[in-house]
Amino acid sequence: MDFGEQVRITFDAYSHYLLLLGIWGGAVIVALMRWRQHPRVSLLVVVGLVILALQLVVQTYISVWLPINMSEEGQSAAQIGLALRDIGIVNILITSLAWILIMVALFGWRGKALAARAESEDGVIREL
Question: Whole-angstrom Cα distance, residue 37 to residue 33?
Answer without folding.
Answer: 9
